[in-house]
Amino acid sequence: MFVCGFPGRPRRRTPARPLATSSSVGGARADRAHGRRLARRAAAAANDSRREGLQRCGAESLSRAASSSRRPRLPSVRLAMIPDELFEKIRRLEVRTRGRVESVFRGEYQSAFKGRGIEFAEVRPYQVGDDIRNIDWNVSARMDDTYVKVYEEEREQTVMLCVDVSGSENFGSQGKLKREVAAEICAVIAFSAVQNNDTVGLLLFSDETERFVRPGSGRRHVLRCIRELFTAEPESIGTDIGGALRRVLRILQRRSILVLVSDFFDAGYDSVLRAAGQRHDTIGIELQDPREEELPPVGLVDLTDAETGETVTVDPRDPAARAAIEAAAQARRERTREILRRAGVGHVIVRTDGDYLEPLIAFFRRRARRG
Predict the structure, then answer these.
(1) Which residues pair with 125 in a beta bridge?
(2) So which residues are the signal peptide here (predicted)?
(3) CB–CB of 166/265 below 8 Å?
(4) What is the distance between the alpha carbons of residues 303 and 296, in angstroms, rounded to a whole number?
């Protein structure tokens, strides 16, 4: 018998294997079947573990949409444990708000909120036009040339969205509830913040704290905040702005951007709002609906307070009744405006029958001009 091999390399002899008997063959087959069962169990356990991990993160992957020759495909993240209809609503909101952020709002946000300060970045050779106050004399002496210190803005900030989800926020006469408008406003601000390397937190309140999301960054975190805005079912229908602000002041340890979104149907929060305005860069976004101050002349109407349940019957055709409703609404709004002004808090009015982005941009531009 001839054996082929490489020249000069000794042949390694393999010991002869014993012939398998029928019993040993059956045992080997059983071992292989048992091994396959163990492998399937391990794979199933791994899949379960991955699935649980995705649910804990609050998101899971979706199959990508069909490609289009005109429009690039957008990456999508499926929020776990929510109905398909709500997921589509969140996805449409993300596409709409991110588009507005990229095209319009991001620059306004960055100009309005310039960061906490500046920090040292590096030392480089002096160039014509550099501020001589930044010359580093020690380095210049060692290098026998003129060097200046370079500073950069410390960009990262925390944006805390404090959103009213009381009973009155579930009202809207123009096709959108005040709560839905609040969700869109928060989405625009949150996406602008994370694109500027800021972190975003969320606190939902009625007359108690309903939900709290710790500040975080990234698209998934913003989607989680949006999901909470849409899915939160408040345990109470009252409003306690002061209690919510006290909770926020305990949470935020350093100066942050505090955005308070509410219709301000409350009283007794003046002092704590003033404290928030002193410690943080605070903005009050007041949500208004036209039917809260003017009713159509349609005959007798039962008006129910969404937070107390009290019901009264009015006749909008009666000029005296209409005047009383309008006067009460105007007085409440004047009181809110005065409270925010005295607290040194920015004030933005957003109506459900208009575009929420225009008043936000106008406000941020005024801030940027003031420096």
Answers:
(1) 147
(2) none
(3) yes
(4) 13
Protein fold of 158-370: Rossmann fold (3.40.50)
pLDDT in tens, the chain (371 residues): 443 443 444 444 444 444 444 444 445 455 555 566 666 666 666 555 544 544 444 443 333 333 333 333 333 334 445 566 767 777 777 777 777 776 666 667 766 665 545 567 789 999 888 888 889 999 999 999 999 988 765 557 899 999 999 999 988 888 889 999 999 999 999 998 888 889 999 999 999 999 999 999 999 999 999 999 988 889 988 999 999 999 999 999 899 999 999 999 999 999 999 999 999 999 999 999 998 888 877 778 888 777 777 888 888 888 888 888 889 999 999 999 999 999 999 999 999 999 998 999 899 888 877 75
Task: Concatenate the DSSP letters of all residues of 203-222 into one string.
Answer: EEESSSEEEEEEEE-SHHHH
- Output the six-digit token pair for 189: 């601000």
Closest C-alpha among 45, 89, 81 to residue 60: 81
d(CA 77, CA 221): 11
Q: Report d(CA 76, CA 59) in Å as an integer.
A: 10
Q: What is the pTM of this model?
A: 0.66
Residue in the structure block whose two tokens are 């009202």: 171
Helical packing angle, 178-195 and 84-100, nearest 10°: 60
- Tokens of residue 339, six digits: 């409270």
**Domain map (residue ranges) of the chain:** 117-154, 158-370
Q: What angle do helix axes 357-370 and 178-195 make, rounded to 10 degrees? A: 40
Q: Comparing C-alpha atoms, which of 307, 306, 251 is closest to residue 279?
A: 251
DSSP secondary structure code for residue 267 in this structure: -
